[in-house]
Amino acid sequence: QSALTQTASVSGSPGQSITISCYGTSSDVGTYNLVSWFQQHPGKAPKLIIYDVSKRPSGVSNRFSGSKSGNTASLTISGLQAEDEADYYCCSYAGRSTNYVFGTGTKVTVL
Amino acid sequence: QVQLVQSGAEVKKPGASVKVSCKASGYTFIDYYVHWVRQAPGQGLEWVGWINPNSGGTKFAQKFQGRVTMTLDMSISTAYMELNRLTSDDTAVYYCARELAARRFFDLWGRGTLVTVSS
What we know:
The structure holds 2 protein chains of 2 kinds. Chain A is mainly beta. Chain A is built from 1 helix and 10 strands; from the N terminus they run ββββββββαββ. The N and C termini of chain A lie far apart (35 Å). The model of chain A has no long low-confidence stretch (mean pLDDT 96). Chain B is 0% helix and 51% strand. Chain A binds chain B through residues 1, 3, 32, 34, 36, 38, 44-48, 51-52, 57, 89, 91, 93, 98-105, and chain B through 35, 37, 44-47, 49-50, 59, 61-62, 95, 97, 103-112.
């Protein structure tokens, strides 16, 4: 099972909105509404920010939103802030055989 | 406090084995699967496998099958991951993370354990 494909890097100015795409296949993203997103700051553990495609855990800013269309999932960060500068990973359930597959990761830079 | 506390960094020689622990606290241990995810230096996240504390059942990513073992010590709410026949490609930070049974996302992570494989 190959990793999900993400754009390597995305940048934006404070206050802007950016979108990160996560390209999967009909075996993972396209079949299951079980996509999650993680934020990872340097030297830190990943933090869950979106689950079940578009749900936010308690305590996560509503500036983070998720969606899915076909085999592609997306994470949008609105009102970009300096603290949003981090790596972001998508993850999809991929069935009983493969179980889970992560994206390649996207580095978000706040200009 | 709800947390997963992992064991300290390890340095191993090629061909050796490593066993990393993950101690859960602040929640009902049997209600959540424990997953292991690794991250090589400068690289992305890679799912290794899970263990179900309720049944002891396990599931591993295909590339680790035959080389990884996951076990439990229910008396201290701790999960273990042992990886055998280490190579330099296994140098990575190994994270444990929990999943509320069958919810398919990881809502709590440990801080990670750096495993370095070097001769």
